[in-house]
Each structure stands twice: as C-alpha cells, then as structure tokens.
Amino acid sequence: MAYPQIKCAYEKDNNPPLSKEADQYFQTARQLEKSAGVRNWPLIESNYQKAIDLNHWKAMNNLAILYRKGAYNVNDKLDHPTGIVPNKDRMLALYARMVQLKVPMGYYNWAVAIQRGQVKNAQKGGSASYMHRAAELGYPLAQVAIGNHFAFGLPQGQQRDDLAEAYFRCAGAQDNTEALIEVADFFYVSKQNMPLAAFYYLRAASLGSTKSFMFIMNMFREEPKAYNFGYLPNPE
C-alpha cells in the first residue's frame, strides 16, 4: 500500500484563538482546581462552563476530563452535591463541540472515544479518520499514535519505520511531555539510538515530566543499571 508523505504540522499553529474574557474564566477554574484543601467543585464547573460558552476549547477538554473521571473531595462520595459526577454524555458533547471548532485535540479525543466504544453507532475503524485529522493538524499524541501504528502495528515485515520516525520526530518537536516520552521510547526500543532517546527524555524532563526525571536518573545509577545508555554511573 502506498502511504502519503507526512506533512509535519504543529498544534499551536492550528488551535483556534481564545478570547481574553474566556481565558479569565478558564484561569479562575484552573486556580480553584489546583488549590489545596477542600475544593469548590460547583464553582470550578461554573467557571469552566462560562469559558466554554465563549468557545474556550481548553476549558472543554478540562471539564470533559472531570466528567470522565468524576471529581470530589477526599471525604465525599461521588454523589455528594459538592462533587462532579462522571457523565459520559456530557463528556462526549464537549468532545463533539471541540471537533466542530476544528480543535486538533478534539479530533484526537473523539478518535479515542470511538476506540473505547463510547460513541454510539460508531465502528472502531471509524476512529482512524479522526486520528489522522488530529495528526494533520499537529496534535502530538495523534502523531505518536500513527507513528506507533507504522512501527509496531503493521504485520511483520511490512512495518514502515521511515514513516514512523517522521511522525515521531514531528511530535518530538512540540512541548507535550507525554508525546516526548513516547518519542524517546521509540528511539530507545526500535532504533537503539541511545543519544537521541536521552535527548527526548531530557526535553520532557525540562518541561517537568517526573517520569522522565526518573528515567534519566536511572541512566546514572550505580550498577546494576536499570537502563544502559552507555553513561558511567554517577551518583552525584
């Protein structure tokens, strides 16, 4: 099968603009959500919704996550009036709205929802077009997903490492820690390119990824070494 050549795109170039008013509501919600102690979930939800009413796609994604997982304070039950109860329909409605706004992350979220069987009357194979669209618009986790397909998902002997590497490098040029770890893993496992793998782990660590910090720390552990990247042990 002939595959089209990848055209590397970056998410930041394709995200819809956010208004100042919408972002104020979003930032208020984020500050409340990150606050210590008992959190005011109704107020958090309200501020996210006000931002969403003004087409703030980041607020849509964050509130969708809360509807997917549920949110409550430690001593509360999920049905407590101060919590946010999981609600798949509301989550999907927010994902659908992100797709309507042509948000790269929205196409990815919708593709994953189809893969998980959460979208009624949707075949799992139908997720591919949304995943490809997300990658075309530069969403790094979609680019990683397609890279993994070409590297590991095709039948033995039909893998396309050239296309896989192109997708991984494109994803690796963006500041998404989860994607950067996947890129590092690809160069570590598939290419055995230790310096390049270490480079991407370091990039993820520089953006605050705890997992990457742990990985890099293991590179310099005393013997027996957890990961052999060719560096001498260095406790300091």
Describe this structure in words.
By secondary structure, the protein is an all-alpha fold. Helices cover 58% and strands 0% of the residues. It is built from eleven helices and no strands. The termini are far apart.
The end-to-end distance, rounded to whole angstroms, is 51 Å
Biggest sheet: strands, sense, closure?
Answer: none
Protein structure class: mainly alpha
Helix content: 55-70%
Mean pLDDT: 91
What are the secondary-structure elements, in order, as H or E?
Answer: HHHHHHHHHHH
Query: Tell me, what's the shape?
Result: globular
Radius of gyration: 20 Å
Q: What percentage of amino acids are in beta strands?
A: under 5%
Instruction: Name the poorly predicted regions.
Output: none
SS elements, strand count: 0
Number of helical runs? 11
Short description:
By secondary structure, the chain is mainly α. The chain has 11 helices and no strands. The N and C termini lie far apart (51 Å).
Topology:
Blueprint (H helix, E strand, L loop, with lengths): L19 H15 L6 H13 L3 H13 L18 H13 L3 H12 L11 H10 L3 H14 L7 H12 L4 H13 L4 H13 L3 H10 L17
Helix pairs in contact: 1-2, 2-3, 3-4, 4-5, 5-6, 6-7, 7-8, 7-9, 8-9, 9-10, 10-11
Provide keyphrases for this structure.
236 residues
